[in-house]
Amino acid sequence: MPGRKGKSLTRESSAEERAPEVVRLLLREYPDAKVALRFSNPLELLVATILSAQCTDERVNRVTETLFRKYRRPEDYLRVPEEELARDIKPTGFFNQKARAIRGACRRIVEAYGGRVPDSMEELLTLPGVARKTANIVLGN
Q1: Domain containing 106 — which CATH number?
Q2: Please, are residues 44 and 64 in contact by the beta-carbon 8 Å criterion?
Q3: Which pTM value belongs to this model?
């Protein structure tokens, strides 16, 4: 890149060598980048991110506006039948799978982490329905 200082990266550079430079450039170009999902705590972000699969952030935000008033803690998601949660999230699509994933994640959060959303990649990946993308979003916000 013209005007760049430091080591010149080429196509032959390894991913490990290129990654820090790519991150630096992205941060420079997008210093205020934020996730479009609306949330006020890690549990809300986790749930919203699960809901965002194959769904627009705009639609997820419309659903979570009501959802987060009804479900405030992991235990709240476990107190209702899975079918009720599925109805609550139906507009996001794949609602049966998402309800199962949310309840599974909440069950693990309660049983293994004392009701606190884990704050490490390793722990987040133990939650049902959570893969690296979801974990990275939760950790990055």
Answers
A1: 1.10.340.30
A2: yes
A3: 0.80
